[in-house]
Amino acid sequence: METTNYASTTTSAVRNRYARATTAVAAVLSLTLAGVSIHAASAEIEKPAVLKTIEKEGITIVGNVLPAPKGMTGWAGYQGTQPLAFYVAPDGQVIVGTVFNAKGEDMTRGPLQSAVSDAMSRGIWGQLEKSRWIADGKATAPRVVYVFTDANCPYCNLFWNAARPWVDSGKVQLRHVMVGIITPTSQAKAAALLASADPAQALFQHEKDNTEARKAARPAGMKPLESGVKPLVDIPPAIKQSLNANLELMMNMGIRGTPGVVWRDEKGNVRVHPGVPQDLAEIFGPA
User: Fold this and answer.
1) Architecture, CATH, for domain 46-106
2) CATH number for region 131-284
3) β-strand partners of 174
């Protein structure tokens, strides 16, 4: 599977995804403009009322920094992990898309990436920090890696084992953002881990038990695991709310399965890898 670098994501993949949210607050058209006269952005223009309304839908507007067709203003923004370009017409209507000049050159991508990459990475990382996670490794570790983890996921268990050299040596702290999506007992097991008196130790023992169960199941394949911690019968409302919020965060980041590994590269940009990465040194550094 490919690694996603959110500093280089374009708007084209997200037009359909956010059309419903934006049409709810403005006449939004998901299209590409071509052969138009482009003018430079002006940072002095006040944010249009329609964009203030759109921000209430969970979209962050960074600023009026995009070259735009004559008579329009170009605004950079993002929602979750997706950059978005908004072009506001004089009548207040909004177009979401990509602008090409008369030579067929993309006038949106570069300025949009430059405008949102830092803010988007800070926003994503901040959301992860505020999520409900279980620490795996020393708090003094120089590198932090978040991983969306399902308690019954055999591939999460593979990743947990593969990460041991970095975690045990104090080089990396994993932060397991618990979700429950694979089997009917997944959420109740995640709740049991979070509700434990010592979640870190409970997770450690759980993954050790899962390791033994996974090895014993060979060669049956990588099936969901039902070993380890016992499911919590009654999930406290606060924990259930945290698990639902974790799942929403995972989906907003475009991660559709576990494990979902999230880290920051040497430039500080957020990177995401769905599944078990082949090259752990790229994420963790030298063993």
Assistant:
1) Roll (3.10)
2) 3.40.30.10
3) 136, 145
Task: Return residue ranges of the chain for CATH 3.40.30.10.
Answer: 131-284
Q: How far apart are CA 8 and CA 116, in angstroms?
A: 10
**Could you give the residue range(s) of every CATH 3.10.450.70 domain in the chain?**
46-106
What Rg value do the Cα atoms of the chain yield, rounded? 22
Tens of pLDDT, residues 133-185:
999 999 999 999 999 999 999 999 999 999 999 999 999 999 999 999 999 99
Nearest to 275 by CA among 107, 147, 93: 147
Give this prediction's pTM. Answer: 0.75
Amino acid at site 95: I
- What is d(CA 254, CA 249) in angstroms, rounded to the nearest whole number? 9
